[in-house]
Here is the input.
Amino acid sequence: MNQRKLILDWVFDNRAAHPDKVYLTQPVGGGKVIDYTWDDVVGQALRMASHLRAQGFQPGAKIAILSKNCAHFVMAELAIWMAGGTTVAIFPTETAEIVRFVLEDSGASLLFVGKLDIWPQQASAVPASLPCIAFPLAPPTKFDTWDAIVGRTEPLAQLPRREPAELAMLIYTSGSTGRPKGAMLTFDAVTRATEGMVAHTRAIVGQVENRMLSYLPLAHSFERAWVECASLMDGNTHVFFAESPETFLADLQRARPTTFISVPRLWLKFQQGVFAKMPPQKLDRLLRIPLLGRLVGHKVRKGLGLDHVMRAGSGSAPIPAELIEWYRRIGLQLVEGYGMTEDFAYSHTSSETQNAPGYVGVPMPGVQVRLSDEGEILIKSPGQFVGYHRRPELNANSFTEDGYFRTGDRGERNADGLLKVTGRIKEPFKTAKGEYVAPAPIENRLNAHPIIEQSFVSGVGQPQPYAMVVLAEDLRARIGDPAVRAQVQQQLASLREDVNRELLAHERLAMIVVAHQPWSIEEGLLTPTMKIRRNSIEAAVADKVDGWYSAGQTVQWA
Here is the structure.
């Protein structure tokens, strides 16, 4: 009986079909890049796989990667799979404590160390007994290097195969609350989900070369699935890597992507960058003028490096409907999708015919969905994980009796079957009046305002909730000007009134507090995918909250 193709089979077929086609483009500094063909990528992976096998690791051994996105991340993952192992990717921004936890929890047998910004802080988390290999772009170390090993090692004599039920990956969640959990994904789940993603993208992009820029963390399921694995399966995709935040615009201009996926905070920052060059009111007037509006929209997209994009998507967190509408007005058909680590980001997506701002779309082929009595979204996906590593107590509560995953997200569906995610089942907090407040819908309303980059709503045990906001970058640079500060204060006061008019009495905001600096990943206030860590922000401001309420001002400065 013939076994259905798995992702490694697709990789070997792509190498055989077009060995000299450039697959990965890696910037190496100073505007220079290195192109890797399919033959380069698979050939180096086979040599590294031969080295890994020679170490005598057990079948299914967990092998970790700690690196920012780069070509050798993809090669290392392939080598791990070819050697019979399971990949454990660690977010490159994680603290030493989390790095140590993931290495111990996974039982990692080896660590690939790659392109990193904070390696001196993370190095202490790596046991001296753990074998390590350094990528070409890694910080200086005493570890054996990728290039040296590949240069002296013969490739595997036969192309390896994996079984559908074998584990391909342990993906550790980014940990918005508590320590991360390792979701176990099989080769069958990874392959079947990826097949659906490739078919979806190809239906939009067609047979032209699909170009993508990889910059969201590859340790996260969103980028891993829709960029890495989709490109490994679709031999007509060219992946470019970003070098650094400072070179991002140049990296984007180099790639000129046809497919571009991002997260809400970055979509918002792109918009705010446009507004910093042209006031939103003026841009709005120009966009309303026939013909001229199309030319202006194209100029804006070209300035962002997105003028070739045929498929633009947002995921990982809810995006304000107003932001989606703005991108569509400049000619970018931005759509929202919905997926989780636990279904390998294969759940819901929008299309040109099935979409609405504020909705995440309809189930992708093979996905089953229903809502529980309390509105929880329950998913059964071809990309579904088999459970959390070493967490039997979590596994017992994560599935319904008939195999649906309990997402923890609350949702609703409209008459056309489009799904809207309205918050988290366990996210609502109780005020002093004993009534629950769901923060996410209020935050979405606040985030739609152009002067706000991010927001956070809380107020546990207080008479009314409050909101804390991070101002847009251009305003933060000018907030020392008394006139600018007064204008911002007035805008926030008006925003609070506008938002409160749409809320129930117990949900209305007592005040808006302006954060004194942006929340950051390094401070532990954002996840590596830039979602807010609610518990961490609440803890950081806990000693100030009572004072804010006592002051009685509707707009305050932290």
Q: What stands out?
A: The chain has 19 helices and 27 strands.
